Structure formats: C-alpha cells, structure tokens
Amino acid sequence: MATRAADTIVPDHVSPALVRDFSYFRGPEMEPTPCGRPQAALSFVHREGPAIFYAPNNTYDGRGTWVFTTAEDQRAVLNNTEVFSSNRGIFKAALGEDLPMIPLEVDPPNHMKFRALLNPLLSPKRVDAMEAGARERAVRLIESFKAKGTCEVMNDFAFPFAVGVFLQFLGVSDDRRDEFLGWANEQFHGTLEQRLNAMRTVVDFMKSLIALRRREPTDDFVSFLLAAEVEGRPLTDKEILGIAVLLFEAGLDTVAAAVGFDLYHLATHPEDQQRLRDDKALIKPAVEELFRAYSTIQMLRTAVRDFEYKGIAIKAGDLISCPTMIANRDPAEFPNPDTIDIARDNNRHTAFAYGPHRCLGSHLARRELIVGLEEFLARIPTFRLKPGSAPITYGGHVFGIENLDLSWA
Ligand code: HEM
C-alpha cells in the first residue's frame, strides 16, 4: 500500500527515510514572496541531505518527484537518456493535442537529427549577426523610461526586450510585439485558463505563420524549416510547429526572468553595480555568475524502466527533477557556492543544463543578458529598489520575479 505524507501519496517503493517535505511550488520563498531569494532558500538541501530524496507534492499539479541535488547526480540522469526520458507530452496533457515539442521531447538517437538541423540557427555566428538588432531594442526601451527616474523592470524592459529579440529571430515584424507580449504574459503568468488559451493562440499563430511562409517563403526561420530536410525528407508541418512552439516556450520567460534577477541583484548590491560601472569587462563574468546564483529552471525526466541508482530503487513512471538552482549551489562543484562573486572564474554552471538537451538558445540568451546589462548600466545612473516597493519573487518550474520597481536620481 502506498503511504501518505503531508497530505500526499508516497509510492511503496520509496523508503520513508528518503521522503522530504519539499516543494518548488509551496512553502516559504516558493510561493510569491516580497524580496525573496528563492534560489538561495533551497541551498539548505546540501547541508541537510540526503543528496537524493523524494518530494511527494512537487509539481504544479501535485505529483511526487525524486529530487537529485548534486551536479554529479544530475549529470548522471541527464546523460542517461535510455532510462530518463524528456518526453513528457506537455501539450497532450495541457491541450489534448499530440504536438511533441522538438527537440526537447525527442529522446536520442532521434534527437540528434533535429539538433544538427537547428544548432546553426542559434550558433555564436548567428547570434553575432543578431546583436545589433538586440542592442537597438534594448536602447529604445531604456530611453523610453530613462527620464522618468523609475521603471518597473519586468513590464518596461525584461519582457518587451525578450519578446522583441524573439520576434527578430522569428522574422516577424515588431508591430506584433504587444500582441506577443500579451500572450507571453498570459501563458507564463496567467490563471490556468488564461495559460491554456494563450498556448492555443500561440499554436494557431505558428500554424498561420507556417501556412503563410509555405505560400510566400522569405529568408526567415520558418522558411528555413520548410526548406530543411531530416533523413532525406522534408519536415512535416507538425514537426515545424513543435519546434516553433518550443522556441516560444523556451526563449521568453527564461530570458525575462534572468534580466529581472540580474537587475534585482545589482539594485540590492550597490558594490557589485559600481564594480560593473567601473569595469565593463566584468559584465561578461558577472552574467555567468548571476546565471549560476539565480538559475531559474528545474528539469524533469520520466524513468522509462525500473532502475537502481546509488542503491535507490527508481520505478518506471517516476518523475526525476534536476533543479539547476540547486546543482549550481553544490559545494563539491563551486567553492563558497552561496557567495555571489561576479568575478568568479572557472564557472562551469549548469543554468543551461547538461547532456544532449543542453539549451539550444544559450548563446543568444547570454548575449541578450550582456547587451541588456551593458545598455542599462550605460544609460541609467546608479539605481536601487524604488523606496516603498518590494519585488515579488516565486518558485515553480521556472523561477521568476513578478515585479521589480527601480528608481534613480
Ligand atoms: C536565460 C535564458 C535561458 C535559460 C536559463 C535556458 C535554460 C535551458 C535549460 C535548462 C534547458 C534544458 C531543459 C531540459 O533539458 O529539460 C533548455 C533547453 C532548451 N532551450 Fe533554453 N534557456 C534559455 C533561453 C533560451 C532561448 C533564448 C532559446 C531560443 C530562442 C532557448 C531554446 C531552448 C531549446 C530549443 C531547448 C531544448 C534543447 C533540446 O532539447 O535539445 N532557450 N534551456
């Protein structure tokens, strides 16, 4: 018989000694919290152990997951794609639509043929070519609020910036930015109903974009996919749709959250802000350190067969969570992991994951953060949290910030 712990089900094969009252969704710092530090709040797991434990109520819909906390154990899961699948049928569960998000929900060896196709689209060289457009968008946004002496970072900068760069990548006109922003807001921060509606709208938009480019090809991303081949055949419309929708899911909220956490850090650590103002060359390592310390993603895998790992019995169907924000505070991997050192070297963090599903957009994301911080620091004088305001942070599948009011003289 399965047992109950903290009002949730613990399967029979899980030893009670490995059960922890832990959640990314519930409890202090994980629920919306004024001036929270959700990533730092989780680093206690390295002090208290066990390194692998079972959290009975650890998804948005209350399912249990194993939690692998060390970087070494996470690498073992993420590299073992024969046992730990990333195919979770997210769209089928949400919309009843059989739409695999490609390449995330495709396991190797099939995964590689899609990655080989997509890697050049977001290569460092491609990102170099996008930089001027991204910078222009950052400058325009910052100049629009600079004179006010205040801004709300998420709405005024982080989201419109991430959405603008994404439209640039897609080859869609900036005229549609506000429409996209609305969908992104609902999709990532709305009620369940709003989220589902926004997902449907994005799918419909991508379908119409594919139909349009089929009729009138240009030199954009969708036209590239329509002309591309895998294993000597063209991609199907469903495959193209799965790729385009995944990029929307993967490339907006993540970038906006990172911009938010970085500016939150700099607003509350004036000494780091000043160091970056004094030495622009520090921005690059600082962005890496802030990716490490304020990582936002927890990856989920499903065991496809029974498996024993370090003496722990994992059963087919079990969910395994690999939180980047916890691996990135692993003392075996980083000296003084809870100290944020913007000049940290040898910073081999896992904010963009390990293994075959390593983030396809990491070069673009890094560049967006560097360009965004460079322009913000160059144009906005010393900033701090707006007096009387308190940014609300939250946990979940992607950690983030709801609002961040800044002010400057
Ligand atoms: C700060 C920003 C970002 C962070 C922290 C981030 C992080 C990650 C992580 C941790 C994964 C692995 C997910 C898993 O294995 O379950 C991932 C995968 C992915 N990311 Fe990102 N990402 C960011 C931005 C982007 C951007 C800008 C794009 C594209 C425009 C993008 C596209 C993707 C894609 C397509 C995958 C799936 C790769 C595969 O399955 O082979 N990401 N990302």
Describe, in short, the structure shown.
With 409 residues, this protein is α+β, with helices and mostly antiparallel strands. 46% of the residues lie in helices and 14% in strands. The chain has 16 helices and 17 strands.
List of distinct ligands in this structure: protoporphyrin IX containing FE
Backbone CA Rg: 21 Å
Mean pLDDT, to the nearest integer, reads 93
Largest beta sheet, briefly? 5 strands, mixed
Strand order of the largest sheet: 4-5-13-10-6
> What is the number of domains?
1
Question: Can you tell me about this structure?
Answer:
Helices cover 46% and strands 14% of the residues. The protein is of the alpha+beta class and 409 residues long. The termini are far apart. The protein has a single domain, classed as Cytochrome p450 (Orthogonal Bundle), CATH 1.10.630. It has 16 helices and 17 strands. The longest helix has 24 residues. Bound molecules: protoporphyrin IX containing FE. The site of protoporphyrin IX containing FE has 24 residues, from helix 11, helix 12 and helix 16.
Give me some keywords for this one.
409 residues, 3-stranded antiparallel sheet, binds protoporphyrin IX containing FE, Cytochrome p450, 17 strands
